[in-house]
Amino acid sequence: GMELEQIVTALQACLSPDPQQRGAAETALQQARRLPGQAAKLLQVVVADECDLGLRQMASIQFKQLTHKGWEVSEEERQKPDAVVLSEEDKRLVRENLLEAVIRCPALVRKQLQETLKTLIYADFPERWPGLLPAVFQNLNSQDHNRLYGGLMALRLIANKYEFRDKESRRPMVEVIDNVFPGLLQIFQGLIASNAAAVEAAELMKLICKFFWSSTYLALPSILLQPAQYQGWITCFMQLLERPVPSEGEPQDPQLRLAWPWWKLKKWVLHIIGRLHDRYGDPKHTKEDRPEEKAFAEAFDRDCSAKFLQSHLQLLFGLPKGQYLSPRVTNLALQYVNHCVGEKKLYSSIIKPCLQELVTTVVLPKMYFNEEDSTLWDEDPHEYIRKGYDIIEDLYSPRTAAVNFLMELVNTRSKDSLPMVMGHLVQLVQGVANLGAGAPQAALWQLDGALLAIGSIGDKLKRTKPYKQQLEQMLMGYVAPLYSHPAGHLRAKACWVAGQFADIKFAEGRGKGQNFISLMQLTMRCLQDPELPVKVDGVVALRSFVEAVDGLEPLRPILPTLLDEFFKLMSEVENEDLVSTLETIVEKFGDEISPFAVGLCQNLVAGFWKLLQSEEEGEDDDGMGALAAVGCLRAIGTVLESVSNMPDIFVALEPILLPVLAKMTTFEGQDVYEEILEILSYFTYCAPTISQNLWTIWPNLIAAMDDWALEYFENCLIPMDNYITRCPDFFVQCKNPDCLSQAFYIAKKSLAAEEAYMTEAEKYPAPKLMNIILLACRGKVDQVVGPFIQTAVQHMPKAESNLMKDLLMLVVASALYYNAPLALQGLQAAGALPQIFTHWFQLIWRTSKKAGKHLHFKREHDKKVCVLGLTSLMAMPQLPPEIAAGAGQILQGILKLLSDFKTLREKNAEEEEEDEDDDDEDFDEYEEEEDITALVEGGVEDADDEGNISHAMAGKLGMRNIIWDDGESDSEDEWTDEEEFTTAIDAIDAFIFFADSMKAIESADPGKFQGWVTALDAGNQQLFKAMVDYSAVRRQEIMQEQTKAVAK
Questions:
Q1: Which helix or strand (DSSP H or E) is residue 505 part of?
Q2: Could you point out which of 19, 60, 501, 1005 has its C-alpha 20 to 30 Å from the C-alpha of 199?
Q3: Cα–Cα dist 754/49, whole Å
Q4: In the structure, what pLDDT confidence band is assigned to residue 854 with cuts at 50, 70 and 90?
């Protein structure tokens, strides 16, 4: 290997300002990684006090990279020529010396070594590193700060490793906890008693807290149930919670103050107490099967609940006195008090007496606009917007915690709090209004917070008298004037509040009248505001107005300008809410959006590429851009839905969207695959014809499903169905790629997938695809009839759900309809004759035990395919003898299917009429209910809940078969017919097909026909006549429908 001197020289050269020298040294070190002993020598340099700090740091980085790469190496990696694999001897040396190195090194170097320590613990502890725990215990018994630190750091990493493991794999951790907790508690108590203000003491206590946090993450360790341990730990947390943070050495710079170990320690203490209270604050909520936790909860409730709550309040009441609390500590303290609002005893004895003071001096001031907001608004408006719309940011912010507290309070303790809170807020708002233009900045900041509070409890106000009657007056009197306020943050807040109340019932009705319109116009004007945050809040509020507006008249004249403003904004900010508002506008206008469809799609595609690029360049740290990118594709889908009845527009849109479809149907589109398939479904369904360009996407779908996207088979089936059903000739004739073979390959691959990889429900698309091919390509694909039947028959015994049994049987039915003699040959070859028919009739007659409902072939489509298949079989001039013997039974089966089909048709038609009647009823009948929440929450659900396929596509796109409940249950809502979907047999009527076939048989072979009919019992003979009669009715209906269509 490299000698020590060589290593030191190379490390020094790595720090050289000369790039050539630096590059050569880095290459030499990289090549040396494969030499034995290299890791140990690097570690020697790391601990060498005589070496300069920069050099040791460089050595520690090299050491970290080497151990990370060479410690655990897969077989595959080992085969590579440049593989770095540490020998067992090297590993032994590193394990023996690493903890000591962590202890002896300065903080800058220690940071890198901790990474290696983590790698080793995750890979080797406990089996391959039995010496670690004894070394840790030895260090914990020392008085030396560095030794304590090293021991605690190793413990923390061990706890990390097991934090989320299940009971079985946590075994080693239980042993560690039982051995370590008593000693740790003594160290913890000693540190607290020493009352040291040194940062080192805070660091050590923070590590103890983190170890406690990880050790108690999934369950309480049994040692904590021993009275001395329980008492000891709880007392330590109580002391740290109540003791003020030492003032000496506390940095004044806000950023440094946040990272100061004493505030970090305080945060961990609140974190731990908060979780203990969440889990064990109420003994009633502990799990029955854990009696020991119930005992802990009872003790916690008795000894701690009230005391901890008082201490949290004491912390918070320091804020109005000018005491500093870090934002995260404020957030956790408010969360703690928030959780206690719902606990009757704690609320009435401790919170209620100081409620007014808490709300007015602590909670509301945290909602006010502040110095930090103001600086950010001026210096970095993009960051201001990002913070405002970032969910993670919300979890930590004091403002969000204050808002959540207020919402919980007015919803849970409405009588005590709402009049007091509203009285205070109204006074604030009126006070500022009375000051007029001379209001000082502090008053404007308070007004901003008061409006945030009013909007946040909007849902409660909208359903509570007398407030709900006063909302319109408040909006017009106090909010509307702020739209032209010189302070940008108040213009933005005015938009936001108006948006929160856009859906109230105004004096002239919901979504209409002079006041509603003027607020909506003011909000639209904000899109041209000089300040970016005002524009964004305006856009988001506008969405609420567009949803609430009654009719399109107020929006029509301004639509072109509105869309232009949107596109300008989209090029300025990455924000998902912006795209959502655009989507709402498109939905609202429906097909009236068509003149703008091309412009909309062009801009959305441009926005999508731009967002994608910033994500690829790593600029999208918080994922906001990725969300907005998905939003762009969703909005494109909404535009396509709106113009789905206008095929010509799709011709103009194809060149705009094809590049997106081409790139995103490959591996790169994993995160947006559902949205992309939706767009492809619209094109393959709505375009006047499927162009050669669109066919270039087919191979991408197949390749993706073959590689990583098989779980999206259901989504892919929609465009595949459209390709096959609309272009059967091309589908069959295309040989490069061979589309037919590809489709069958994917169906077989899916059916053969292991249960762990694909559930049976995820395999439904496979038989559906075979059915689509047989029905759409009738007379063109003789070569697959046998293999399809073979595949279906082979999987029948494995089918568990009723639905899978049906779908596989429908492959046989479709094959018989396709070509009965060919299908019989296939069944014969598969060894399925005649038992397949016995199985089929069992399914047709099978009903649920309780309600006697059909369990199979529940849709009109399924019954129809069965009728077509069985009738085609009967129409064969010469039936094989074993089937001819059961002809009477087959005829009875067809009659049963037809009569059920007729009943189902009539039921569906009735339901459709009822649905149309329901749509006309008004929403306002709910108005007087005090509580509209049930309606709102049960109302507009997100489009994504429909089994991955948005509702917009429901009737349109081929066979949209979501996964339904196919159990034996008798629940009324069991899956039956959905909205119509298009299939290749839409033009064929089952009743007419049956009647015509029977007539043909009767004239070709009257004797055979007579024999069948006379063999039927009286009921079935009547049924036979009724079905033939009904076919005449159907002929009449179809002619009328066609005449109507022509007239249109």
A1: strand 505-506
A2: 60
A3: 58
A4: confident
pLDDT of 618 higher than 80: no
And the tokens for 851?
């309600």
pLDDT tens profile 572-582: 887 788 888 99
Task: Read off φ and ψ for residue 937, nearest 5 degrees.
Answer: -70, -35
Q: Which CA distances in Å does 885 have to 257, 684, 874, 1005?
A: 92, 46, 12, 17
Give the lowest-confidence range in 86-90, 252-256, 487-491, 715-719. Answer: 252-256
* 46-100 residue pLDDT tens: 999 999 999 999 999 999 999 999 999 888 888 888 889 999 999 999 999 999 9
In the chain, the percentage of residues whose pLDDT exceeds 70 is 93
Q: How many CA atoms lie within 13 A of 68 on its CB side?
A: 12
- How does pLDDT run across 885-925, given as a tens digit for each residue? 889 999 999 999 999 999 999 998 888 887 766 554 443 33
pLDDT of residue 935: 31
Contacts 24+ apart (CB under 8 A), 967-972: 967/802, 968/802, 968/848, 968/849, 968/855, 969/848, 970/848, 970/850, 970/851, 970/853
Average pLDDT score, the chain: 89
- Look up residue 959 and give its two tokens: 């066979």
**How is residue 400 written in tokens?**
């969000």
Alpha-carbon gap, residue 980 to 960, rounded angstroms: 9
Contact 332, 267 (CB under 8 A): yes
Tokens of 257: 């103050």
Per-residue pLDDT at 951 exceeds 80: no
Across-strand partners of 735? 738
Under the phi-then-psi rule, with left for phi > 0, alpha for psi from -120 to 50, and beta for the rest, what region is 983?
Answer: beta
Give the type of residue at 483: Y
Q: HEC string of 211-244?
A: HHHHHCCCCCCHHHHCHHHHHHHHHHHHHHHHCC
Q: Using an 8 Å Cβ cutoff, are 964 and 803 in contact?
A: yes
Q: Which of 162-171, 241-250, 966-975 has the highest mean pLDDT?
A: 241-250
Is it the case that residue 379 has pLDDT exceeding 90? yes
| Predicted confidence band of residue 969 (pLDDT cuts 50, 70, 90) | very low
Confidence of residue 953 (pLDDT cuts 50, 70, 90): very low
Query: Residue 555 and residue 588: Cα distance in Å, rounded?
Result: 10
Element (H, E) at 473: helix 467-474
At 923 the pLDDT is 38
Q: Is the peptide bond before 365 cis (omega within 30 degrees of 0)?
A: no
Which residue stretches of 48-131 are H helix? 53-70, 75-78, 88-104, 107-124
Angle at the Cα of 385 from the Cα atoms of 383 and 386, rounded to 5 degrees: 60
CA–CA gap between residue 916 and residue 119 (Å, rounded): 64
Tokens for 123?
Answer: 């890979």
SS3 assignment for 868-882: HHHHHHHCCCCCCHH
Name the residue with tokens 């020590």.
4
Contacts of residue 853, defined as CB under 8 A and 6 or more positions apart, other chains included, come to 847, 970, 974
The sign of the torsion formed by the CA atoms of 438, 439, 444, 450 equals negative
Task: Measure the CA–CA gap between 506 and 512, rounded to whole angstroms.
Answer: 7
Phi, psi of 666 (to 5 degrees): -100, -175
Would you put residue 322 in left (φ > 0), alpha (ψ -120 to 50) or beta? left
DSSP string covering 621-663, please?
A: TTSHHHHHHHHHHHHHHHHHHHTTT-HHHHHHHHHHHHHHHHH
Q: Within a 10 A sphere around the Cβ of 415, how many other Cβ atoms?
A: 6
Q: Residue 505: phi, psi to the nearest 5? A: -85, 105
Q: What is the amino acid identity at position 338?
A: N
| Segment holding 510, helix H or strand E | strand 509-510
Specify which residues 854 forms β-bridges with.
847
Give bridge partners of residue 738 from the DSSP assignment: 735
Q: What is the pLDDT of residue 956?
A: 42
How far apart CA 795 and CA 750 sit, in angstroms, is 11
